[in-house]
Amino acid sequence: MTASSVVPHHVAIVMDGNGRWANKRFLPRLAGHKQGVESLRRCVRACIQRGVKVLTVFAFSSENWNRPAEEVSGLMSLLASALGREVPSLSAEGVRLYFVGERQGLSDKVAAGLAQAEQATAHNERLVLNVCFNYGGRWDIAQAAARLAARGEPITEASLHAATALAHVPDPDLFIRTGGEYRISNFLLWQSAYAEFFFSPSLWPDFDEAALDAALQDYASRERRFGQTSAQVQQVAASQVRA
Ligand code: IPE
Ligand code: IPE
Ligand code: MG
After folding, report:
1. Residues within 5 A (CB) of ion ligand 3
2. Is 59's C-beta closer than 6 angstroms to any atom of ligand 2?
3. Which residue has a Cα nearest atom 8 of ligand 1?
4. pTM of the entire structure?
5. In ligand 1, which atom is closest to the CA atom of 14?
6. pLDDT digit string, tens, across residues 215-235
7. Which candidate, 240, 232, 203, places its Cα nearest to that of 21?
8. Which terminal CB of the chain, N or C, has fewer other CB atoms within 10 Å?
9. pLDDT tens string 46-56
10. pLDDT per residue over 151-180, tens digit each?
């Protein structure tokens, strides 16, 4: 097995840079978000083609409510229209959608649209697409702890993990942030404990197949040690090749 044949099972992306993409073109920020939807569509296809099984994207954070009201309402409308337009073709391509985040605070229309899209794609198995919307890593850890407390269950790593909003998928292997910033911004705090990080200078609307491949290639060259020594990891890899 060559290093470059290692495809991450689960890729997580902070899709950042839509506003700057629009600013550079003297367009309203919302035009950048619209282009961002197109970029996500392209990224989903590319992930399917490359054998990625789970794609988790950050679409709207708990803190994004603090943006100007016009941008927030524009993002809500964009979500509603993107759902209507994209769900049938996503489903035809074998994508199973999950919306991850706090549903309270979303309008009834948006919340119903999310539930419908999840239902309509529930039978698909090619790629799980988790769209984190009204999501924050701190929210997730707090809601998981609150659920366990309400049930009177002990809080352990395993029980807390099972109560998190992404318990239906394994932890991310590769965590990408586009847009050139070097921060997590409250994404996947619990789940990214052992993710490999890749920071791309591309603004999200410009993040194309070549940019994705650069991240995948970089990932394939990493040695993941999970606390062990390099010698231990190489011994396990060698025994797997022999088996
Ligand atoms: C990411 O792009 C999308 C959302 C946060 C909704 P931004 O809107 O943050 O784009 P920049 O960072 O201002 O360029
Ligand atoms: C993170 O981007 C959230 C999403 C991409 C949805 P932000 O643009 O909100 O992050 P900060 O504010 O630069 O940290
Ligand atoms: Mg940003």
Report:
1. 16
2. yes
3. 19
4. 0.96
5. 1
6. 999 999 999 999 999 999 999
7. 203
8. C
9. 999 999 999 99
10. 999 999 999 999 999 999 999 999 999 999
Separation of CA 16 and ligand 1 centre (Å): 5
Q: Which residue CA neighbors atom 5 of ligand 1 most closely?
A: 60
Which amino acid is present at 227? G
Residues belonging to the active site: 16, 64
Residue-wise pLDDT for 179-200, tens only, equals 999 999 999 999 999 999 999 9
H/E run at residue 80: helix 69-92
d(CA 222, CA 230): 11
Give the residue carrying structure tokens 């549903």. 103
Q: Where residue 234 sits, what CATH number does that domain have?
A: 3.40.1180.10
Could you give the angle at the alpha carbon of 4 between the alpha carbons of 170 and 226, nearest 5°?
A: 40
Give the residue, out of 13, 15, 20, 71, with the most ligand 1 atoms within 8 A of its beta carbon, to mutate for a pocket test: 20
For ligand 1, the distance from its centroid to the CA atom of residue 87, given in whole angstroms, is 23
Quote the number of domains for the chain. Answer: 1
Is there a contact between 26 and 188 (Cβ–Cβ < 8 Å)?
Answer: no
Q: How far is 49 from 91, CA to CA, in rounded Å?
A: 15
